[in-house]
Amino acid sequence: MLLPRILTALVGIPLVLAAIYFGGIFYMAFVAAIILLCLYEYGLILLTAKKPVNRVSLIIFGILMIIGAIAGRGENQIGTPSNIASFFMAISLAGVFFVEIISPARSLERAANTLLGIILIPWSLAHLINIRLMEPYGEYFVYILFITIWATDTGAYFTGRFLGKHKLNKEVSPKKTWEGAIGGTILGVAAALFCWDLFFPWYITAAQAALIGLLVSVLGQVSDLAQSVLKRSAGVKDSSGLLPGHGGFFDRFDAFLLSAPVLYYVLLYML
User: Fold this and answer.
1) Residues in the chain where the model's pLDDT stays below 70
2) What is the pTM of this model?
3) Closest Cα to residue 61, out of 108, 31, 97?
4) pLDDT on residue 75
5) Which of 27, 55, 117, 237 has the most Cβ atoms closer than 10 angstroms to its Cβ?
6) Are 172 and 228 in contact, with CB atoms under 8 Å apart?
């Protein structure tokens, strides 16, 4: 499984870095495509588990959640009302329940599963766009986010493989170990410090860069475990087979579900 994993990374990493570099519509379209693919795979996981979910509502109100998260960014930075994000969230919540009410096969469980999907994926991952739009160094902070996540994943994989003895949570993810988690965190913080020194050592302090690395690394691993809970409940190993060696897009971008929004709001108060 290591060779397909490496080959996919050799194709995917340059594509991600190019999207971040060019920014603008190209980057927004890239993130939007990732979100829609993750929503698709989320729906597949629930259908595999025979759990009800409204896949049409996932897409429609998921798009509204993306718009709300972007429009409401950063204390009215783009001239929209300060509560615009809450407005879009309220519309999305009302919409999901309205669709459920008028559906002949109405179900509270289906509404709950649909709501989880549109909050967990579109709202969270839309903050990848918000971070890129931060001035003047949003591009660099997105680089730090991605590179820290990648470093954490790599460090956890190899540390866990060669040194792992104590299971992190065998019921949720049998292969993950405490040694792997610690090794991944150390490499993640080191990667954040490397990026800080490379991009803008004059803009934030080394302590702030280390804090960013620690938050992203730890939250990325928690996000991964949270997604594993979802897959475990469905009895599936991967969200799909679209990315050889990595599973699906939901598997590859699950670490950003918690790390991206938390990093965005930490940066708002830190900078």
Assistant:
1) 1-3, 73-82, 245
2) 0.92
3) 97
4) 47
5) 117
6) yes
